[in-house]
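Order emerges. For instance:

***
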Amino acid sequence: MKRQKQKQLLGIAALIIAAAIWQFVAEYVVGRSFILPSVTDVAVAFVNLLASGTLLIDIGVSFKHFGIGILAAIFLGVPVGILMGWFRVADSLLDPIIEILRPIPPLAWIPFAIIWFGLTAAAAGFVIFVGAFFPILTATYTAFRSVPKIYVEAGKVLGCDTSFELIRHVALPSAIPSIASGIRISMGVGWMCLVAAEMFGVSRNGLGYQLWHNYYLHQMPEVVVYMLILGFAGLIIDHIFRHYVDQRLLRWHEGEVAS
């Protein structure tokens, strides 16, 4: 507990020092808000956006887009990864298709996202889904391929007679740490895809859209506000996910490696 508190205090001190350096450089070295807004400029812009209600609306829209894409990626990526990792026939059938689609950048799907879904939340969610799907699929596939054979044999001895029972009681519990890591990676990729999708016209609202819109208006303090909100939102998402996974799914895994 003492070490954790010390770590938090060091983190806060680092942020304060970074803000002080930023303010000094912006105010006395650069001297132009358009090139580098100061901390005070950004703080004023943040208060104005918060007071107008625009910021909260854009945060809500972006989280809606993100939720659609990530949930779709999880609900499709995990089952497909299980099929490919456990059944060789499914792997042989699906692997060529996956390997052709996987290298295509998520942003390359933006034209079709707009054509298929219009300027809707589903369009932004689709772009996020494309970016988040493959890390989840790959992590699940690798985890199921790596299940120790001794676990499978032990499961058969203990009464797991079908593939479904082996997956449920043996393979899936063994694979959960790797799947959780894949989901965490996909959330980071999906968050970046969200910003790019909104910036390139998939949506008329959201943090990414407003960032680009304010750049066109040369309102750089507002641009920095949205950049920081994106960073803090991504950090919060990651911490919430890690806390949930550690407390609910991986409590048995805690303490496996000595600190």
